[in-house]
Amino acid sequence: MFDDCALSWSATQGRPNQRETNHGYDVNLPIRAEVISELERLESLVEAWDDLAVSQSRPRSAPAWVISWYRHVLPRRARPRVIVVWDGETLAGVMPLFVHRDPLGLFKYQLAGTRTLYGVEPLVQPGAFEDVSAVLGVALASVVPRPDIVELDCMVDVRPWLHGVATQWPRRDPEVADRTSRAYLTKLGDGFEPWLESTTPMFRKNLRRGRRDLGMEDLRPAVHLDAQSVIERLPALARQYESRKDARGGEGMKFDDRVCAMISDAVTRLSGSGRVCLATWEKPGTIAVADLAMGAGRELSAWVRGFDPAVARASPGIVNLATLFEHAAGAGYSVVDLGPGEEPYKLRFANSERDLQRTVLSGRNRWPLHSPVQLLSLAHRHALVDRLRRSTVRIRRGEIVPRPEMSLRRLSTCAPSLM
Fold it and tell me: What is the reported pTM?
């Protein structure tokens, strides 16, 4: 069993101090890091953590969503590792991670929300980024179990974090691979109506037609803010999302009971704050289209959406997203984040964009040995992963039959468990 330990670091000393105690840290150090693996401990930080998310307009990084993800969606064999940085008694930074064993037996650290709530990012108190990122880099390089791989995905600006982690990496510098994708935003400026007037005449014409067609089906727009109303409509949203995902070829998260439980938990935590909204067009007994969004500070982030194929000719997705925008402007949000991905409908709404970066740091650690893959060079590791990926594709296509000696688990029989 791996003992969770606290990591303390002083800005004047410039090196980590690791002790085999749970959550202990020297309160006399000016800046220090603490590694937390118990969700009960995280609950005590919710208020200060949420203040950071609101001040930086990062709704997906709010503790209500991150802790709910840990409780309900965290993979079964993974464990939370949340690095928090203290400046005296003030919470100065939070990096929510989890650790798990990849198929090659290597310890991999990723940001919370991976494969479900994309866009969770580290949060830092304004004006303290340089010091806090350095402390986080030391803590992450020294956390237990020692990282073989660190993946930072869907971050707006990963380079400063990358520098903080890579410069503190033990022994040889890690290999770095990165990739950039794009997310689209809509800046509402002076409100919904001025934004709508800035769109093309064809867009406005189609929007009016869609509203008229949905109205002829006795459907009416609604925006639900209270927890009970949102939770009651989650099953319909899940069905519509899965139907839409299948139509796209199966790409996207799996909206199962665990995700429903996560959303219900987060919505309950944020009940009364107005920071969760579900926009719909509906009538008694029927929900034709639904969009779930979360907010913090100046930004509202659209997350999960779906619609009934029976009303597809009325462009329900476009009509309902406009309903969400109208609510956002009225609620004081100045930016609507349409999330990662370059779906065509986003281009109709967006008037700005931001780059999202995915960076993977691969360590060259060979001690302590917990997987025979550590003995391979990074080039041989990549070759092995590529070969296994191709074999997996061929197995799924039925081109080859798997044999016991092909099992990835045989590569990690000497590795200890996370438990």
Answer: 0.83
